[in-house]
Write a structure and sequence with these properties.
This protein is an alpha+beta fold and 882 residues long. The chain contains 30 helices and 18 strands. It binds a DNA duplex (15 and 15 nucleotides) through α7, α11 and α14.
DNA sequence: CCATCCCGCCATTGG
DNA sequence: CCAATGGCGGGATGG
């Protein structure tokens, strides 16, 4: 697949018309429409009135297949072309187009034989969606005409309009498009995505989806019997707002209804269903949602569950439709969860991490039902801006005093920045320019490309996890570092009450994260950490046993030993073993590269380093590493919601996006803030304080052994954030400093980390303490062993693990383990380094609960490290260590 | 057989 | 009233 895209360019859709082939008509050509299609995109409007030609009488054999590929390519390319040429005139395009045509024709002739009959797959919604997305840039500039003319699209893509509606409906649910009028939609791309997701998450939390999911699962387990009264209790769920049932469509402030029409419709399914579906991902911890559960929740929401079979079936069907679109957007990917009963289809969120919803954010969830704020006579741009930078005015949270300064500076920056209008639709010219400025063309890369990349990266692998689950809770938190500007990281968990449940939520105190500081790592790596149960003990005061396992492809299945109840085992199978293997291989390869090409790596390092320095951050980090730690974490916590530490990052991103120019200034500010934070660190929250107390000294000092590293580091399979994230990062990075060539690694968003790089950065050690986890090379080394043993003992079916050699290699490469150390074979899957937010080191932690998986992300100046920790218990572990 | 999900009938809406 | 939308579920398809 890869395609040609780049070169060919192409353009447009026009081909259709040109394509001759008798035999192949592409389809119904509807009448003439094609002729001017080329410019279509350019033209702001589509023919308004027209009715679509629907007659679809296609030739019986419509061979659009041969062409289809080409078309796709072309379509994919078109956006890119646009970017390149950006303002170029049409003339150029025309030429390009022509070329493209030629290419196509050639292909056709050549390939004629090829393949494809219209097999069902080729008509799949997912594919169609890709084609559709390929036509528009992810981040359209205002300048472009981002109008979508339904008729044209349908025609060009050769599909019935009905299908287009399916796509548009889900895109609409994400606010990636909005309906303007009859046959017209406006394309917003991903500009609103983060806001939308935030809003959805919020609503999802409000709906207590988390709890609902748990109930459903619980029930399942207890299957047969069932009706416990509990359910009712739980069900009690939302009071307040949504209760009546459904909240309907969630809107964003900036984009309410453009065309009166849109709103009116009481949307029934797709749109709303899509939003709800997304919410489920956003609120659930492993971010994996099975179709079954989703369907039940979506159905049951209103009505008590009547397990209507047909209804259920229909729901599932719809969910597949939605899932296909979401998959095309790279927001989710299909996986399977294996439970005792067998494996069930499920989807895993691979989209951007949800920012913690900022409270202030004014996203409003407008529900049809309860139209609270209908005041929305369309927010002015200003409002939008506010929304974007909610914190601006006053903050609701309590901030740690030390942070105040930071905040101020940040706010100042924001103000400066604010001038740029946020509203998606209208971006001020200035903004645009800025954007243009960046190196990033990336922003506008054609969706296709991204997807492709993603897929590649996806090949990566799968994860298996088993969770053991008893109700124990472990409070484990990772250290956080907070660098910059906003201390968004809140203590994990602290904030959302909604989620809390009797059972497992970790007590805040536990949850609180201890701040650990990480110096900067050049690149981020995702790892999964397996903790040995025994160690876990050590680690967690509370939980007796806790095991962390990552599961990726490795077949960690074995963990049964872990105690008790395995509530479920989730297997992600993207590819299956093979894939896993491949992944490993890839990983290895990737890893190797650096080694091999030391030069390159070095260079990269340098670049990165330079970049950092430029930002000034680096210096600070290094110097103070030690200190850091502590304080930062705290500060971080204050502000935002628990779930992500990433918030900060995100904000930063926004920042950057908004104003790249000022980067330097910003950085400086940040840096200063950062310093302050460090110095001041005094914990404010009680919880936090407690935490600290509990955990004495520990973090500040890097004493590896002390803290037991029972962990096992495993690279995560795939970064949660799909390639898109990568791209974003790129953009950002580019903006801030230099563009890192590195990023262009073959696999989107994945960068191998080399030991040298790490060293250069001075990677801090991580230790795991009851409250925080820090990793140190030393500890890590030890850890693997442990986990391994653990696995073995328990091991079940586990397939052959990726070779230990691979693992060792990988870890060593990364510098996580000393050369001499051997890590037993086990699950290592892949390690990915995702380039990311240039600056901060923010880190988020989440609570660990037994039987649950928590993801922790540590944001470093040039990337982030992500772990997934699974708690379970096991017995074996003890001896291993040492 | 079964997980997916294409296809398109036909009810609703909007204009 | 007619076209645009979009719910919905039969039944095809690939594994």
């Amino acid at each position: 697949m890869q395609q040609a895209g780049g070169e060919m360019g192409t353009g447009d859709k026009e081909n259709h018309s040109s394509e001759p082939h008798s035999s192949v008509l592409k389809t119904p050509l509807k009448q003439a429409a094609t002729s001017h299609s080329v410019l279509t995109e350019i033209q702001p409007q589509c023919q308004p009135l027209t009715t679509p030609p629907k007659p679809k009488e296609m030739l019986p054999a419509d061979p659009w297949t041969p062409t289809s590929n080409l078309k796709m390519l072309i379509s994919a390319a078109s956006p890119e072309i646009r970017n390149r040429e950006q303002r170029r005139e049409l003339s150029n395009n025309a030429s390009v187009v022509l070329q493209a045509k030629h290419c196509l024709q050639e292909h056709l002739s050549g390939d004629e034989y090829e393949k494809t009959q219209p097999s069902r797959k080729e008509k799949s919604l997912g594919l169609l969606c890709h084609k559709f997305l390929a036509r528009y840039p992810d981040y359209p500039s205002t300048a472009e005409n981002n109008y979508i003319c339904l008729d044209e699209v349908a025609e060009e893509l050769n599909v019935e309009r009905r299908r287009i509606y399916d796509i548009l409906n889900v895109l609409e649910s994400l606010h990636m498009v909005s309906r303007l009028a009859k046959n017209r939609y406006a394309w917003h791309g991903r500009h609103n995505l983060s806001k939308t997701l935030q809003a959805l998450k919020k609503v999802g939390e409000a709906n207590k989806y988390t709890q609902q999911i748990q109930m459903i699962k619980k029930r399942e387990y207890e299957h047969e019997f069932d009706l416990d009264g509990e359910r009712n209790e739980d069900m009690a769920r939302s009071f307040g707002s949504n209760e009546h049932s459904e909240m309907s469509f969630v809107e964003l402030p900036g984009m309410e209804f453009r065309a009166a029409s849109v709103n009116s419709r009481k949307d029934k399914s797709l749109r709303v269903m899509s939003q709800k579906f997304v919410m489920l991902f956003l609120v659930s911890t492993p971010q994996i949602v099975s179709l079954e559960v989703a369907a039940k929740i979506l159905i049951g929401e209103d009505q008590l569950e009547d397990l209507d079979k047909s209804k259920f079936k229909t729901k599932i069907r719809r969910l597949y439709d939605i899932a296909n679109v979401l998959s095309s957007l790279a927001l989710i990917k299909k996986v399977h969860v294996t439970e005792e009963r067998g494996r069930k289809p499920a989807f895993k969120w691979t989209g951007p991490e949800v920012l913690p919803s900022t409270q202030d954010t004014k996203l409003e969830t407008t529900s049809t039902t309860c139209p609270p704020p209908i005041s929305e006579p369309i927010p002015s741009k200003e409002q939008c801006s506010k929304n974007l930078f909610p914190s601006r005015g006053k903050q609701n949270f309590t901030r740690h005093p030390s942070l105040i300064k930071l905040v101020k500076s940040i706010e100042n920056d924001r103000r400066k920045i604010q001038s740029a209008p946020t509203s998606p639709v209208k971006i001020s010219a200035s903004t645009q320019q800025d954007l243009a400025a960046f190196p990033s063309e990336m922003a506008q890369l054609p969706a296709m490309t991204k997807h492709q990349l993603e897929e590649q990266s996806k090949k990566a692998k799968e994860v298996k996890m088993k969770l053991s689950g008893s109700a124990l809770e472990c409070g484990l938190s990772l250290p956080e570092v907070v660098p910059k500007p906003e201390p968004p990281c809140t203590a994990a968990a602290v904030q959302q009450p909604a989620l809390t449940q009797p059972l497992s939520t970790c007590p805040p105190s536990h949850s609180s994260v201890s701040p650990v500081i990480l110096p900067h790592t050049p690149s981020g790596v995702s790892y999964t950490i397996y903790l040995h149960p025994s160690q876990a003990h050590t680690v967690t005061t509370y939980s007796p046993s806790f095991m962390l396992q990552p599961l990726p492809g490795a077949n960690v299945t074995g963990i049964k030993s872990i105690n008790s109840k395995v509530l479920n085992k989730i297997t992600t199978e993207e590819g299956d073993n093979q894939v896993a293997t491949d992944d490993v291989t890839k990983t290895l390869t990737t890893t190797e590269r650096p080694t091999i090409k030391s030069e390159t790596a070095s260079q990269q390092c340098l670049k990165r380093s330079q970049a950092l320095q430029e930002s000034h951050l680096i210096k600070r980090y290094r110097r103070d590493e030690e200190n850091l730690d502590t304080s930062l974490g705290d500060s971080t916590e204050n502000e935002r919601p628990p779930s992500n530490s990433s918030q900060m990052t995100h904000e930063m991103d926004n920042f950057h996006e908004k104003r790249q120019n000022k980067t330097e200034t910003l950085d400086q500010n940040m840096a200063s803030c950062y310093d302050q934070c460090r110095r001041e660190d005094i914990p404010e929250d009680e919880d936090k304080i407690k935490t600290k107390q509990d955990i004495p000294v520990a973090f500040a000092i890097p004493a590896p052994e002390t803290f037991f590293p029972s962990g096992y580091l495993i690279p995560l399979t795939q970064c949660a954030h799909g390639n898109k994230a990568g791209f974003l990062n790129k953009e950002k990075t580019g903006t801030c400093s230099l563009q890192h060539t590195t990023y262009s690694s073959p696999i989107a968003g994945v960068i191998p980390v080399t030991a040298s790089e790490l060293k250069a950065v001075n990677i801090p050690a991580f230790h795991i303490t009851p409250l925080n986890i820090m990793l140190s090379p030393t500890s890590i080394a030890a850890a693997p062993v442990l986990s391994n043993s653990c696995l073995n003992s328990s091991n079940t079916s586990s397939a052959p693990n990726p070779s230990s050699s691979v693992l060792n290699f990988t870890l060593q490469q990364v510098g996580l383990i000393p050369a001499g150390v051997q890590v037993p074979a086990n699950p290592v899957l892949q390690h990915m380094v995702v380039p990311s937010q240039p600056e901060n080191i923010s880190h988020s932690s989440e609570n660990f609960q037994e039987g649950k998986v928590s993801k922790t992300t540590l944001h470093l100046p040039h990337g982030w490290v992500e772990w997934e920790v699974y708690c379970g218990n096991s017995s074996t572990a003890g001896n291993i260590f040492n």
